[in-house]
Design goal:
- The chain is an alpha/beta fold.
- The chain has a 7-stranded mixed beta sheet with strand order 15-18-19-14-13-21-22, sandwiched between helices. It has a 6-stranded mixed beta sheet with strand order 10-9-8-11-12-24, sandwiched between helices. Strands 1-5-4 form a 3-stranded mixed beta sheet, with helices on one face.
- The protein starts with a strand and ends with a strand.
- Bound molecules: nicotinamide-adenine-dinucleotide.
- Nicotinamide-adenine-dinucleotide binds next to helix 7 and helix 8.
């Protein structure tokens, strides 16, 4: 049985209490490793180490900081296959996906911010004769980073990379559901030569280790990605301490398909935007709205293609692997049941899959398409975060917009049309942080990433992330 460790003050250490949590392999449904059940005392040690490391890390020359971060990025690349296999085993996602998306993106996140700090500028203005006004951006202190299980290393690195690059020291916690690649990253940090205490990784439960990070008085900024209700709890904890807060939360994203779209391209991408990573991507389009003229054609083609998708062992060539955990597996199933009770018809999917043998206890679910529900029902209002989509027809762009904006969330959206006016009009009016037109998940690391309404507060990515992890200071000199 693999026993994970915390990474505190440059060393791999056991939890103070000596207690561990079971970590399950989704493909088999069985425990395969033990995670430190860290508590306040472990987090306190990590914060103390981060505070001690801060003065020298924050004043280190940018080139030197960059070199250390780049070494970590290179080590991820060198260990890509090993990390991808671990990510797939820990999360249940197909190995091909971890190999082609998750781990390369972890590498790229570090490389992006490791180089970005060498190319960013701060502002200077000549306010008038003999008056110069300039703005410096200084790191803040110890950054608290808390990440979810759906894209484990990808989202973990998306936070810690800008925090470290900007000159902060870090105490980070990956999800207790998928701790493995963050643990492996700890080992790579030692190899990369991070000075002790600069980067600390504490494993454990959200309500314990996570809460200890968020409520620690010496952690003045929190970058969190996860569920909306957890985000609300974190905001309540952090607000009275006036902490800087970035919250990347849930979504219930619309995928709006107009009559005049490029049908084949739309269909191919819609299969991905609906079910990639078992539908467990905050950007997946779970509400599919189709204009009436092509509704029946879309329904027939989509249902046929979805029913052909392969669900099975993560390390084999399947479209979908296993669902991440038993509670989540049961939650998704309960939503399929709810959809039926609300009057929905399951057009395909809904069933569990049993690959047999040692995998018979694993958590496998067929991609599911539901029709016949309106936008106000719970199935269409609440985040399911699994391989479940609903389809619903619409008349015109006004109705499409109303449907798109009909939930409390506002993370991402997709619009399929060949009409420039429709594309711009929809993009301008949809209440979401991201609008993809005729594409999905086409990411550029320089662009701001985040949502509106219940999908979050603040933006990650590019300059926005560096801005979050620094404090602006205006200096005005009259000479
Ligand atoms: P979650 O909120 O249960 O957990 C996320 C992280 O927060 C975990 O590390 C967890 O241990 C920690 N945590 C839980 N309670 C805490 C507390 N009281 N204090 C501090 N930390 C705490 O979310 P999840 O189930 O891991 O992830 C799925 C959710 O994440 C979905 O809602 C999904 O939409 C969202 N998500 C959003 C984005 C985005 O960028 N907006 C990206 C990925 C996932």
């Amino acid at each position: 049985m693999i026993e994970l460790k915390n990474y505190i003050n440059g060393e791999l250490v056991k939890p103070v209490s000596g207690e561990y949590i079971d970590n399950y392999e989704p493909a088999t449904g069985k425990v395969y490793s033990k995670i430190p059940r860290s508590a306040e005392s472990d987090v306190n040690q990590a914060v103390e180490a981060a505070k001690r490391a801060y003065p020298s890390w924050s004043t280190m020359r940018t080139e030197e900081r960059s070199k250390i971060i780049m070494r970590l990025s290179e080590l991820i690349d060198k260990n890509l296959d090993k990390l991808a296999a671990a990510e797939s085993r820990d999360n249940g996602k197909p190995l091909w996906l971890a190999t082609s998306v998750d781990i390369p993106r972890g590498r790229d996140n570090l490389a992006f911010f490791g180089t970005a700090i060498k190319h960013t500028q701060s502002e200077s203005h000549r306010t008038g004769e003999g008056i110069i006004n300039f703005t410096t951006r200084k790191p803040i202190g110890v950054a608290g980073c808390v990440s979810p299980w759906n894209l484990p290393l990808y989202l973990f690195s998306w936070k810690v990379a800008p925090a470290l690059a900007a000159g902060n020291t870090v105490v980070a916690k990956p999800s207790e559901v998928t701790p493995m690649t963050a643990f492996m990253l700890s080992e790579l940090c030692i190899e990369a030569g991070f000075p002790p205490g600069v980067f600390n990784i504490v494993q454990g439960l959200g309500g314990e280790a996570g809460n200890a990070i968020v409520s620690h008085p010496d952690v003045p900024m929190i970058s969190f990605t996860g569920g909306t209700s957890t985000g609300e709890h974190i905001a309540r904890t952090a607000a009275p301490m006036f902490k800087k807060l970035s919250l990347e939360l849930g979504g219930k994203n619309p995928n709006i398909i107009f009559d005049d779209c490029d049908f084949d391209k739309m269909l191919k991408t819609t299969l991905k935007s609906s079910f990639a990573n078992q539908g467990q991507i905050c950007l997946c389009g779970s509400r599919i709205y189709v204009q009436k003229g092509i509704y029946e054609k879309f329904k027939a083609a989509f249902v046929e293609r979805v029913s052909q998708m392969k669900v099975g062992l993560p390390h084999e060539q399947n479209d979908l692997g296993a669902i991440v955990s038993k509670p989540h597996f049961e939650k998704i199933q309960s939503y399929i049941q709810l959809a039926k009770e609300e009057g929905g018809t399951v057009l395909t999917g809904g069933e569990t899959v049993n690959p047999g043998g040692e995998y018979s206890e694993g958590w496998y679910l067929r991609p599911t398409v539901i029709e016949g529900l309106n936008e106000t029902c719970r199935t269409n209002q609440e985040e399911i975060f699994g391989p479940v989509v609903t389809i619903q027809p619409f008349e015109d762009r006004e109705e499409a917009l109303r449907l798109a904006n009909s939930t409390g969330y506002g993370l991402a959206s997709t619009v399929w049309t060949q009409n420039l006016n429709t594309a711009h009009w929809m993009a301008d009016h949809i209440k979401a942080g991201i609008v993809w037109v005729n594409c999905w998940l086409l990411r550029d690391l320089r662009t701001p990433f985040g949502g509106v309404k219940n999908s979050g507060v603040g933006r990650e990515g590019g300059w926005e992330a560096l801005r979050f992890f620094t404090e602006a200071k205006n200096i005005c000199i009259k000479f």
